[in-house]
Design brief:
The structure holds 2 protein chains of 2 kinds. Chain A is of the alpha+beta class. Chain A has helices at residues 5-12, 60-73, 78-82, 86-92, 101-121, 126-130; strands spanning 25-30, 37-45, 48-57. Chain B is α/β, with parallel strands linked by helices. Chain B has helices at residues 14-24, 36-55, 69-86, 100-111, 129-135, 161-168, 187-190, 228-231, 239-254, 256-277, 304-313, 333-337, 342-346, 359-378, and strands spanning 2-3, 63-66, 91-95, 115-119, 140-144, 171-175, 194-198, 209-213, 281-283, 294-299, 316-317, 319-320, 348-352. Classes of the chains: A alpha+beta, B alpha/beta. The structure holds pyridoxal-5'-phosphate (PLP) and FE2/S2 (inorganic) cluster (FES).
């Protein structure tokens, strides 16, 4: 598998790997295509994602996209975070082999699930939160 | 680089290349040509044929050169199916964990109306031959079961199939691509009618193989054209590769017991070390009845591609049954056939050792693997 240098860097030195003691939101998704699993935890302060951590049972692309994705999301508002697409993450990694693009969807979905979980716990409607006004 | 993927392919031995070189340069004659230059090429391929025949206890005129193991499998299976069809038979028996060269050929025959039965495999990696007796029908024309599995290395007791096939007049093929040069093979003892071999698994070049066809079996041609290979397999012969193939078989047979002893020691060391030092691991396939160089281990809680990528840092080459490298995104059908969960199949690594590997190389794997597994497990949401 030919990965870019950026993918390999994020794979060997994943940013934001681990767990958050007391998360405000948790998202766990499985990749129906290959059976892999991704877990995201977020801390939210005043509508901003102040901390984010992930764990992955998956391939190199899954680990690298979660690492890059979490890095792009940290410090962003919930709405900004919601709108960061897997495509943007893939671009930031200088691309992925075509067979591996589906792995980046896993990271995006896990982040969305974590935001939804946060909204649910705080009685917020995630749809109106992330919608363009 | 530490190359531990010798079941995928092998390095060409210097002696093999030496033997081939003249046929890539000065001795370029077409074996079908009348003059000496051509006839010398013909003599060279027939010498290779003699070596390969002898190595499996066959006669020289029972060996047909092909372009690879895959072609040999395709030819044997399709040919036997068409022979069967002429006699009104349309049923083929094989196993769940065959190589795709066999399974996909069978799949295509199914589209043509053949009925296919795939025998299940036991958890230690053996085709359930008891079931074979139950599945044989009057319309069965072919049984094809591999001699040694390419992923888990288990050696199948196929000599037990002979009697069943003889009684019912069923053709019997085996894919011996992984077994040749590693275990003693005698086509008479195995009782097979056809046997597939490939060069590149035993230090010959890629793109050359052979099919043993027992004399008397009128297998139809698969590649049509000129009169090469006694009108059975057309196409100007890949002379240099065939010569290399012969040389590689000769070396493998001459050194088999020496090589096996050496490889077995390295293999058992590494298996024992991994199972002892790394918790929650499982050896896939029986430990005794497996190819000398094969190690296939599952690591709970992690995924194989990420293990391979970590190994890449140390320039260690291995392979995995994980879905994430398969292209199809399904984990290895071999590992699923022996009853592994998706998760365990996902976390599998295959190391295949050859006599070219060294103790130092195995020591490096021992040194780096435990930390790699630990690091990936710390990153895994399903590892507690
Ligand atoms: C068991 C088995 N059969 C068939 C093949 C195909 O051989 P080849 O690569 O020569 O086509 C292989 C090798 O990949 C194999 O391991
Ligand atoms: S997550 Fe399984 S292929 Fe990438």
């Amino acid at each position: 598998m030919q990965y870019s240098d950026k993918v390999m860097d994020h794979f060997y030195n994943p940013r934001n790997i681990g767990t958050i003691e007391d998360p405000d939101g948790v998202g766990e998704v499985g990749n129906p295509k290959c059976g892999d699993i991704m877990k995201m935890m977020i801390k939210v302060d005043n509508g901003v994602i102040s901390d984010i951590k992930f764990k992955t049972f998956g391939c190199g692309a899954a680990i690298a996209t979660s690492s890059m994705g979490t890095q792009m999301i940290k410090g962003k508002t919930l709405k900004e975070a919601w709108n960061i697409s897997n495509k943007a993450v893939v671009e930031a990694l200088d691309g992925l082999p075509p067979a591996k693009v589906h792995c980046s969807v896993l990271a995006e979905q896990a982040i969305k699930e974590a935001i939804k979980d946060y909204c649910k716990k705080n009685n917020l409607d995630y749809k109106s939160l992330v919608a363009d006004i | 680089m530490i190359y531990l993927d010798n079941a995928a392919t092998t390095k060409i031995l210097p002696d093999v290349l030496d033997e081939m070189m003249i046929y890539l340069t000065e001795e370029y004659g077409n074996p079908s040509s009348f003059y000496d230059l051509g006839q010398r090429s013909k003599i060279a391929i027939n010498k290779a044929r003699d070596i390969i025949a002898e190595s499996i206890g066959a006669k020289s005129d029972e060996i047909y050169f092909t372009s690879c193991g895959t072609e040999s499998d395709n030819w044997a299976i399709r040919g036997a199916a068409y022979l069967g069809k002429k006699q009104g038979k349309n049923h083929i028996i094989s196993s769940e964990f065959e190589h795709h060269a066999v399974l996909h050929t069978l799949e295509s025959l199914k589209q043509e109306g053949f009925e296919i039965t795939l025998l299940p495999v036991t958890s230690d990696g053996f085709v359930d031959l008891e079931k074979l007796k139950l599945e044989v029908r009057d319309t069965t024309c072919l049984v094809t079961i591999m001699l040694a599995n390419n992923e888990i290395g288990t050696i199948q007791p196929i000599e037990k199939i002979k009697k069943i096939c003889e009684e019912k007049n069923i053709l019997f093929h085996t894919d011996a691509v992984q077994a040749v040069g590693k275990i003693k093979i005698d086509v008479k003892e195995l009782g097979v009618d056809m046997l597939s071999i490939s060069g590149h698994k035993i230090h010959a070049p890629k793109g050359v193989g052979a099919l043993y066809i027992k004399s008397g079996i009128k297998l139809p041609s698969y590649i049509h054209g000129g009169g090469q290979e006694r009108n059975k397999r057309a196409g100007t012969e890949n002379v240099a590769s065939i010569v290399g193939f012969g040389k590689a078989v000769k070396i493998a047979i001459d050194k088999m017991s020496e090589n096996n002893k050496y490889v077995l020691n390295l293999r058992n060391q590494l298996i024992d070390y991994i199972l002892e030092k790394i918790p929650a691991t499982k050896l896939n396939g029986d430990k005794q009845k497996r190819l000398p160089g094969n190690i296939n281990i599952s690591f709970e809680g992690i995924e194989g591609e990420s293990i391979l990528l970590m190994l890449r840092k140390y320039e260690i080459c291995a392979s995995t049954g994980s879905a994430c490298t398969s292209g199809s995104l399904d984990p290895s059908h071999v590992l699923l056939s022996i009853g592994l969960s998706h998760e365990m199949a996902h976390g599998s690594i295959r190391f295949t050792i050859s006599e070219l590997n060294t103790q130092e190389e195995i020591d490096i794997v021992k040194k780096v693997l435990p930390d790699i597994i630990k690091k990936l497990r710390e990153m895994s949401p399903i590892w507690k």
